[in-house]
Amino acid sequence: MATPRVSRIGEGAYLVENEGQSAIVYVAGPPESPWAFWNGRIFNSASGSPSTAPRPRSERSADERETLTAPMPATVRAVLVRPGAAVKKGDAVVVLEAMKMELPIRAHGDGVVRAVHCAAGELVQPDTVLVELART
Amino acid sequence: MIRRLLIANRGEIALRIIRACREIGVEAVAIYSDADRHAPHVVAADRSIRVGPPPASESYLSIPAIVDAALASGADAVHPGYGFLSENAAFPAACEQAGLVFVGPPAAVVAAMGSKAGARRMMQDAGVPVVPGATPDDQSDEAVARAIERVGLPALVKASAGGGGKGMRVVAEREDAGDAIRAARREALAAFGDGALYVEKLIAHPRHIEVQIFADAEGRVVHLFERECSVQRRHQKVIEESPSPAISPSVRSQITAAAVRAATIASYRNAGTVEFLVDLSPTRPDAPFYFLEMNTRLQVEHPVTEQVTGTDLVHAQLVVAAGGALPWTQGSIVQRGHAIEARIYAEDPAHGFVPHAGRVLLYREPRAPGVRVDSGVVEGSEVPVHYDPLLAKVIVTAESRDGAIARLSAALRDFPILGVPTNIPFLLQVVEHPAFRSASIDTQFLDSAGAALAGKSTTSLDEAPEIVRAAVAAHVSAASERLSTSVSEDPWDRLQGWRS
Known about the structure:
- The structure holds two protein chains of two kinds.
- By secondary structure, chain A is an all-beta fold.
- Chain A has two domains: 5-44, no CATH class; 58-135, CATH 2.40.50.100.
- Chain A has no helices and 14 strands.
- Chain A has strands spanning 5-10, 13-18, 21-28, 35-38, 41-44, 58-60, 65-69, 74-79, 86-87, 92-98, 101-106, 111-116, 123-124, 129-135.
- In chain A, strands 1-2-3-4-5 form a five-stranded antiparallel β-sheet, with no helix packed on it.
- In chain A, a hairpin with a 2-residue loop joins β1 (5-10) and β2.
- Chain B is of the alpha+beta class.
- Chain B folds into four domains: 4-103, Rossmann fold (3-Layer(aba) Sandwich), CATH 3.40.50; 133-201, Dna Ligase, domain 1; 206-454, 2-Layer Sandwich (D-amino Acid Aminotransferase, Chain A, domain 1), CATH 3.30.470; 461-496, no CATH class.
- Chain B has 17 helices and 24 strands.
- In chain B, α7 crosses α8 (177-192), α12 packs antiparallel against α13 and α13 (424-431) packs across α15 (445-454).
């Protein structure tokens, strides 16, 4: 089967062409919890999940510190690092679970874990700092 | 004429009224709670005034706060919209006392129609049919059984003291009466401490048909034909249309005449609705109808009447409230074409229709001939947790009912709202259901068929068709780059973690 061709035709609007047919699909929302609409149908990453889940944020200050925060109310399933551990960009450092969905929280760059602020089983709120990194 | 109107409401109806004000040169004053500081109705008004914190009881339901706001803003009139204070007789009374014109009937009329038993008696005396029923003076089992004989089978036996279906029993056959009376009596005593029973004729397949009426201060009363609202979920209307596909021209002329009689006897003024139950069981080809209640306000579904009669009911409300004459005579009002309204709620039909709050991330209204959208939100709006989750109403108009259904179906398929779940997929299931298309439903339709239709609403992304997944992948990868968040480069990594 041919791969659908996708062109962005406006904010949140995508023209998808596949095998001679075309359709407009609307997509919005943060990458970890996108919503889509097509032909009167609604698609969501976790149907029935809190709809206000803010997106994951990382704040980097001038001295190259990085904090990884919880994007939504969630349970910590696993903490994969300890203070002092070296991490590479893209490494998962914590795994959260919310509404039957696993969400790995990954390092944005190479660094060293400065502090871990969460533990497995803990319930975390949006914007709770999970892990602090120092960039290397 | 009204110079400055305070709108004691929010959401789509506040916007609807603001637009009418703008067209006729009346200044519109919006009120808002702290949850609505930048809501579309506040932005659209000529001026706005805070009335309290988010809970409705301290803001949109606070008579003192709203009357104070009206006086402080220099308004000379108040429009209640629907819901909130619109049917609370204390509100028009407080407005009258403060010297404000209330856009609606006088307080005494609101109070009289607010008493279900009182309204029923008044209508019965005026010769408007009511559902046959009685609370027998003699409450012995034998006397209650005789009352059941009088109203006819099937009948309902229920607690005279309460509502909510407590202690209600259906008597289908004569020999069931004894058991039903004793069981209803036990439950009535347990629930209300009062064993008095009320006996009522059971309408097995009722349709909900209501008549829009309008009256001015000179006592002129007209009707603007009927609306059919049989598609309801737990007494909440979901889809409304005009004309009713179920009644004959002869029943139409009887039911509209009865509504005018009801409005006249009630000394009604301004816009109102007389609700009837119509018995369309196969055994009743005469389609008897019964007065249910009178709504002393503008209805949510008023646009379907506007569409088929070519009128502006809100405009007429302002004219009549200011003491003006009705802008129409009965003979000038005609019903033309077919209109259907669907109510779009921020709710999740797949999970018990639970209302949702949140930010509307994407909102694009359908645009096509014969499509009207009355909306209370814009892209970026916050849907607060505190109020009714109605987002918008889609009203379609076409030459025929089939044409209107096709148009509604197309409009709903072209109405993306993202960020909060909506009932759009559910509405499509209803509109395309054979029983709705053939107009063979009664008020129990959604309560029996609705659950099966609701299950097919919001879908998990990993079950989405390939074209949807492709668009989502493009969106996610673009968004990930823009945000430079911790999201993996390959958006499909995300999907593998899902367990649904």
